[in-house]
Amino acid sequence: MVSALPDGYQGKFVLVVVATAAEGKADELQRLITAVSRSSNDPDKEPDTLTFRATRGLGVDSNKFTIIEEYRNMKAWEFHQSTEAYKTMKESRTIADVTLSFTQEFS
């Protein structure tokens, strides 16, 4: 499931991603997300990515990953999707299901 920013939205937003790893692929997905995190948190590589925090569920939820991403604007998110680390993860077939929620911080 993917939500979307309203047409014409300008400015900062937070993206909450919940990804479920494909069967037997959780450890590989974690390695790929770690590579995306390194790229995202490097201001020389992604200066308009403000936050990229990844978590992995515990116990029976160890195949679920929640990622909190904050971008200065839509162009920053589009740039993020063009990075090698992101494209490698997306093409890896390690994700069985993903939900994206575009949100706005209010406090």
UniProtKB/TrEMBL annotation:
Annotated Pfam families: ABM
By its UniProt entry, which InterPro entries does this protein fall under?
ABM_dom, Dimeric_a/b-barrel
Q: Where is the ABM domain?
A: 13-106
Name of the protein in its database record: Protein tprxl
